[in-house]
Design goal:
- By secondary structure, the protein is α/β, with parallel strands linked by helices.
- It has a single domain, classed as Alpha-Beta Barrel (TIM Barrel).
- α15 links the parallel β10 and β11.
- The longest helix has 24 residues.
- The relative contact order is 0.17.
- Bound molecules: 5-hydroxymethyl-3,4-dihydroxypiperidine.
- 5-hydroxymethyl-3,4-dihydroxypiperidine binds next to loops.
């Protein structure tokens, strides 16, 4: 029987990597094409992959876990496009040994995963569930045994439902609840896991989960969004304070979704709407975190929630910033939009997009990193998510051909090298995602993985994009295949 490594090598040969398109498609109306070619990144650059608990673990009622807001939401008829839920997802809870072995065979050096709060503290507060932490303990040990450095994220949107029933992110006490949970997790795992991210994409969670309502917990409106956003920011600060010093060598940070925002036209109303959207998506997190204030455009809206000391708490220094980058947005004035009367407008003609209609621009990643360099003190950054959703064909002879995703990743890795050459403190890159998974409101029908998951059989097949990354990772790090 062929070993997994032999399967990978034969798939690599069959994938005809030299025939990959060399021309970068990434382009914005504002920026020229980046040079095509092979990404050049420093030897110490960390190459990894990202996932999140609810999107891959399954086993939602095992090991003492209780429901999260996403269990409730995904089981509500009409909420998920294809009617799927995270009940099983990639069954990673049971299959993590094979998944870690696959990561090792691909040559990953880093793996970013999230802990499910409802697995660790099923009621959100109170007793810690030892069995829940045991799962992450085993996962961490298997990663380390394969030479893969774990990066843990404490909150990737799966709030315990019990806390939602106490007001969730609308209840200011959540900053204390989060601190207790963070302390329990870091206390147990921080002897081996060093980088810890507090939150994943707080602005996205606030906007979609608490403003548009198309994500859990399905709340809507401006006031709801503002409350959730401030308490998310506050929890990021209380979390850092709670875990600081629990173990030697901890690296504490948080993860933001950042993107360049362009007006959809030169109409002054669209230009103003784009500025408001930028404040809600980007600077609502960046300004308090690095400058200790809310963006001027929305300072008044947030003021009633901000108590003495809050901004100092949020501004607690971090060791790294995780940046999730997918592409830019083009924004128009929309009088009825809850989010600062701003909404997504038309893309410039011929803008390339992924299957979700998201514009592609590798240059945008350089721009985001340059903004951090120029306006926010050039913090050490990891790209903690970057990837693309496409319709993938079924495997042929063990190979899933995903040339568009492969090209997307190549162009963004070239951009990563470009950002470093321009003085940005970029330290590593984690592709989103290791596995096809439960893509929130889209369900299982929308795939971001570099490894294909057949959800019926749970079979994993590395796609051409995984093999491409694998060849780069091994070449750049001079690592021999395991
Ligand atoms: O799947 C999500 C992830 O959970 C957060 N960032 C964006 C990804 C793609 O939509």
């Amino acid at each position: 029987m062929l070993r997994r490594r032999d399967l990978l090598l034969s798939a690599l040969a069959a994938a005809s990597l030299p025939a990959l398109p060399l021309m970068a498609r990434a382009q914005t109306a504002a920026a020229p094409l980046l040079p095509a070619g092979t990404p050049r990144l420093p030897a110490e650059f960390v190459w990894g992959a990202s996932t999140s608990a609810y999107q891959i673990e399954g086993a939602v009622a095992e090991g003492g876990r209780k429901p999260s807001i996403w269990d409730v939401f995904s089981h509500t008829p009409g909420r998920i496009a294809d009617g799927t839920t995270g009940d099983v997802a990639c069954d990673h809870y049971h299959r993590y040994p094979d998944d870690v072995a696959l990561m090792g065979d691909l040559g990953l050096q880093g793996y970013r995963f999230s802990l499910a709060w409802p697995r660790v503290m099923p009621d959100g507060t109170g007793p810690v569930n030892a069995a829940g932490l045991d799962f992450y303990d085993r996962l961490v040990d298997s990663l380390l045994a394969r030479g893969i450095q774990p990066m843990a994220c404490l909150y990737h949107w799966d709030l315990p439902q019990a806390l939602q029933e106490r007001g969730g992110w609308h209840n200011r006490d959540i900053a204390l609840w989060f601190a207790d949970y963070a302390r329990a997790a870091v206390q147990r795992l921080g002897d081996r896991v060093k980088p810890w991210a507090m939150l994943n994409e707080p602005s996205v969670h606030a906007i979609f989960g608490h403003g548009f309502g198309n994500h859990a917990p399905g709340l809507t409106g401006w006031d709801s969004y503002v409350k959730a956003q401030h308490h998310l920011n506050l929890a990021q600060g209380t979390g850092i304070a709670a875990v600081t010093g629990l173990h030697p060598g901890l690296k504490l940070g948080t993860v933001l979704s950042l993107q360049p925002i362009f007006p959809a036209s030169q109409d002054p109303a669209d230009i103003a709407a784009a500025a408001r959207f930028d404040a809600c998506w980007n600077t609502i997190n960046l300004d308090p975190l690095f400058h200790g204030r809310y963006p001027e455009l929305f300072a008044e809206a947030f003021a009633p929630l901000v108590k003495p000391g809050d901004l100092e708490t949020i501004r607690a220094p971090i060791d790294f910033l995780g940046v999730n980058y997918y592409g830019p947005s083009y924004i128009k004035h929309e009088p009825n939009a809850f989010l600062g009367q701003a909404s997504w407008g038309a893309l410039p003609p011929d803008t390339p997009t992924t299957l979700l209609g998201w514009p592609i621009s590798a240059q945008g990643m350089v721009d985001v990193l340059a903004r951090l360099r120029d306006t926010y003190g050039n913090p050490p950054v990891f790209i903690t998510e970057n990837g693309a959703c496409y319709e993938d064909p079924a495997p042929v002879d063990g190979v899933v051909a995903d040339p568009a995703r492969t090209e997307y990743l190549r162009a963004h890795l070239v951009a990563a090298g470009e950002a470093i050459a321009q003085g940005c403190a970029l330290k590593g890159y984690y592709v989103w995602s290791l596995l096809d998974n439960f893509e929130w409101a889209e369900g299982e029908r929308r795939r971001f993985g570099v490894v294909r998951v057949d959800f019926a059989s749970q079979q994993r097949t590395p796609k051409q994009s995984a093999l491409y990354l694998s060849s780069l990772m091994k070449a750049q790090r001079g690592r021999a295949a395991p």
